[in-house]
Amino acid sequence: MGTRARRLLLAGVGILFLVHLVCIGIPLGEETVAAALGEWPGTVAAGAAGISLLRAARLWERGGTGHGGGSDGVDGGAALRNLGFAALAWCAGGLTHGITRLFVSDSILSLTLGDLFLLAALPLFAVGFTRLAPWPGGIRTALRHITDSYVCAAAVFSVVWLLVFSPLYRELGEGAGFLGFALVYPVADIAVLCLLVPLVFMSPHSMRRVVLPAIGAFALITAADLVGAVTRLTGPAVAGGIEHPLKLLGFLVLGALPWLVGHRPGSEPRRITGRGLYRFAPELAAVGAVAVAAVALTVSGLGLPGVAPVLPLAAGTAVLALLVRMLGMMEENATLARMVRNREIHFHELARNSGDVVLVLDRDGGVDYVSPGTAEAFGYRVDDVLAAPVTSLLHPEDLERTKEVGELFTGCAGQGVHLRLRVRAADGTWRHTESTVSLYEQPGEPDRLLVTTRDISAQVALQNEVEHLTFHDGVTGLPNRAYLEQRAGDVLAHRVISDDAAGTVAVVFLDLDGFTAVNDAAGHAGGDHVLSQAARRLRGELDSNATLARWGGDEFAVLVEEAPKAQRVVDLAERLGRVIASEPFQTADREMVLTASIGVAFAETGTGSGELLRNADVALTRAKEGGPGTVEVYAAHMHDKVLSRLELQVRLRRALAEGEFYLEYQPVVDLGTSQVTSVEALVRWGRDGEAVGPDAFLGAAEESGLIVPLGEWILREACEKVSVWRLSDWDIALSVNLSPRQVLSPRFVETVERILAETGLSAEFLTLEVDEEILLDNGGEAVQRLAELRELGVQLAIDDYGMGYASLAHLRRLSVDAIKIDPSFTADLGRDGTVTLLTHTIIQLGRDLGVQVVAEGIERAEQLEQLRAMGCDRGQGFLVARPMSAAGVEALVGGEAGASL
């Protein structure tokens, strides 16, 4: 309800009261208009008040604040509901009285049904009021409150008796015994009023605007009942029926209560802290009432010849209650005194024996007490600490945190405050501390602060070290994979909830090409040194919006958080690649030239951190397939390709286990004699009844490592077959291709030696073919392995010769028995003069080195003739013979020793 509406409501209440008040001065026969109207206006007002309060209770609860006890036990919805029921009970009592008096004259000799309704309203009002001003907690506190309220009520009744009812008691004479029926309302009202008034002073601060009008309304009703009791005893209406306007005003105020004060759900209830006069509100009320009653009784006793029996009864019971109360207070005081003394003794003992620093501070931070452990913890003398405010020892950046401590004096900070602060030690270093600050109260002394401080510098240092080790790489000092994953998640989550997120988020993956050769040549220590150099180069190219991390092995990752354009990220990736290849890396006494393959992925709407990093890794895989120094930007089809590759690898493992692979053999013939001299073993996959060539699956097998067991199976199968043929007196040899992973696999040489021994094939009839690529990327280790194979007597051949970049150098380093001319040279013979010249040069080079030359891919007769003219030793291709099964080789070699060329 707005301010204007409240003012109008208040004006309406005042007008109704003034109109009814005027009615006590308007005569109507032998009585006034107010007396003639009787209880009807008040009854109607009580009913309206009940409806108003119940409706307000529903609105309160609908607002979400009325269910259950709120803070400090306040339950506004239940309070208004009980007050509404009390108003309706008053209304029911008034209606019953009004209807009854139409037929029966009023009597003070008994309590009617209407009186029972009116009496029932009192406990309902008391219950509703205590939901706004909660009952003091604890049995002792409640008992003290009740006894104080009784003393107050007895004293107030004594005064009212002397001033109002004592003369009537004397005038009634023999009928004075009926006075008790008339006093039921006043006595009950006074008892409830004295019980509730002290609760006003102890109520939550936010409820004061509600409880004050409520207790005021009840005080008006109590006054009206007192006047009404006098009227019932004397007959004529007192002051023209003044009790009726008073009761009307009380009910109007009660009904308007929730609308006049409103409800502020955002306000926090604030209770009295237990200090000051508010704490002793019941005692003060009782003492004040007893003092007034004592004066009144003294004055009355001096002027009256006799005293009524009820007065000694009230005074005697009040004295007994006071004695009980005094005994309880004495016991409480003794207990509190013992607790205070014991607390002080325990406090000093704990402070003396504790390893923590214990301080007692005043409001301004001055030190009143410091424990002996301070010198040991921070190196200060006790006098040094007492000389200056403790705030002078705190780090300036941490002073802002101490503002919460001031709230302890106002009761807003709860039981205590926990702080982590940096404190300057005597040697000038800053120590990390953990402190607990609470209010320190002593009777008769100002409130101070009790501070317990512990030095946690070692713990903080350990936490920092653990955090650094957890999220940083030990070789390069860069953040590691775990940190980058967490940071990427935080950045993307912030973009989701932030309205002002700008720029592009991207991840760049970078892999050092040929890094394995660094480890082989310089050892792992040298490799770590190269990684550190690479990290420094990469870090120098990045700004504050990018996070560089070591992803693992020789891979680095860059999280770009706010790039203005996607092209800037691609430019950055290319710049990182250039800085890696810009100059050689120094390791030990050699220089290593490296390049970098780079994959880039951008965060789209809804992209998670895991998906973003995976996309960058997929792009890097594609870049590595493209060759050294390639930069690839992620596209959706890359992921599909990777999934297909993974599915193929799984299928290949199952195919190897279930024996789905088989071999075909392509004959190699002597171009001079047209005789089959050897066969090259070629693997095929019988997938679902269809023959699948090696180009479709060998790449996946190499990538997954399956090429090692597959290559071993191929070698064993082919050696067994050729060994059988040689036992049949066929002069035929075997050629088998090797992959880089096979050659570099552990114990590969031992595997070849074992297969030769088990199959019975002589090593001189086995030729193992390798590509030039293996010599370029893994030169040192590969040359050593191949040299060990030659020591076994195995023949070596370089396959696809002429497609590499360092052929002559490697022919010098590694002695080979044959070179195989790449089919691309054979295909252009007679068509391209340069190719023809190169082919002739390769053949001549082989003849000069004493190396056998084999031409691959012979498909046309003119190619064959040119190769013969150039002096090429041997050849293979579809013109000579297509790949065939073992049975086909047996038919070719066994039936007709040569092929017609």
Automatic annotation (TrEMBL):
Keywords: Membrane, Transmembrane, Transmembrane helix. SMART domains: EAL (SM00052), GGDEF (SM00267), PAS (SM00091). Residues 503-636 form the GGDEF domain. Residues 343-404 form the PAS domain. The chain crosses the membrane at residues 7-28, 108-129, 150-169, 175-201, 210-233, 245-263, 284-304. This is Diguanylate cyclase (GGDEF)-like protein/PAS domain S-box-containing protein. It holds the Pfam family GGDEF. The lineage of its organism: Bacteria, Bacillati, Actinomycetota, Actinomycetes, Streptosporangiales. Residues 645-897 form the EAL domain. PANTHER family: BIOFILM ARCHITECTURE MAINTENANCE PROTEIN MBAA, DIGUANYLATE CYCLASE DGCP. PROSITE patterns: EAL, GGDEF, PAS.
